[in-house]
Structures are given as C-alpha cells and as structure tokens.
Amino acid sequence: GYQEPHYEVRQVMNVARRSVSSFAAHPERTEVIYVGSFDGTVAVVNANTGKIMQPATMVFESSVFTVSASSTCLAVGGLDNFIRIVHIRDDPEHNYCLGAVVSVLKGHTDVIFTLAFHPANNDLLASGSDDGTVRLWNVQNDTETAQTLLG
User: Fold this and answer.
1) Cβ proximity of 64 and 40 under 8 Å
2) Residues 45, 92: Cα–Cα separation, whole Å
3) What is the pTM of this model?
4) Is it the case that residue 93 has pLDDT exceeding 70?
5) Burial class (CB in 10 A: 0-12, 13-18, 19+), 48
C-alpha cells in the first residue's frame, strides 16, 4: 500500500517579523535564499546555516507578496502594484546580497501576486496580478514587452 514519505526538517529560519510571503533561491548559488515578507522586508538567508547573510534587511514601502531571482537581480512585487528590480551583488565577498533598486516597473493596476524570470533569459520577467493580467517585461531596458495577457 501507499506509504507516507518521510521528510526531515533541515533548517528552521526565523527571518521576518510577520508572515513570510515568498522566497526564491539564487539560480547559481544554492545556499542563497531571498525571503519576502508581508512586513515589507526582503532578507538574504544562508540555507545551510539559517542565518541572515545581509547586515540590514531591505525594507520596502509596502508588503512584499512575491520575489523572483535571476543570477543578476531580484524582482520584488507586492501590495503597491509596482515591481522593483534590485541588483544582486555577484561576488562571494558580499555573499550575493542585495544592492540598490535599479528600476521600478509600472503597469499593473492591482496587487502583484507572482513573478518569474525566464529560465534561459535573465532579461525576461513575467508578472501576474489581481488586475487579471500577466505582463512580460524586459528588465534590461525597463520596458514592458508587447504582450499583455488577459485572464
């Protein structure tokens, strides 16, 4: 008969003051996890130790609902309908921590619930919102592509 699989908890991480809303792994550095929270913060966490890697967690103006990581940047979306593109410091000395917000993508008219970078093209980002649309963005030049898909 069917046997329930056994899973072992490897690490418990206390990284947010409020509920954790999303997380994304760095695509090349498997020990690096970016954790978004409804308190408007994004923490950079070492998955092996459970410790926050960045001295100061980034704080945004509104609740963070979703994050997605490419090898060069982190997309952050949430309650304010904007997507912030944050530079990822790509050297081990900085532990792949977050740098500055390099752009803000505007186009959605309601909460952004999901973000995903294209697995083969770091410049292409898809976003899904409560406004009923999926938008495709070119994060290299901060523009929305011609495709807006209606739900």
Assistant:
1) yes
2) 14
3) 0.84
4) no
5) exposed
Mark 86-123 as b/e (b = at least 16 C-beta within 10 Å): bebbeeeeeebbbeeeebebebbeebbbebebeeeebe
The CB density around residue 28, as the number of other CB atoms within 10 Å, is 11
The distance from CA 127 to its chain's CA centroid, rounded to whole angstroms, is: 11
**Strand ranges, E, within 70-142:** 73-78, 83-88, 98-105, 112-117, 124-129, 133-138
Q: Does position 31 have pLDDT exceeding 70, yes or no?
A: yes
120, 116, 122, 115: which is closest to 138 by C-alpha?
Answer: 122
Beta strand 58-59 with 41-46: parallel, antiparallel or unpaired? antiparallel
Q: Which residues contact 28 (CB under 8 A, 6 or more apart)?
A: 71
**Span 102-134, pLDDT tens digits:** 999 999 999 999 999 999 999 999 999 999 999
The residue whose two tokens read 């803000």 is: 104
Answer positive or negative: Cα dihedral of 115, 118, 119, 121.
negative
Mean predicted lDDT score pLDDT of the chain? 84
C-alpha span between 70 and 112 (Å, rounded): 18
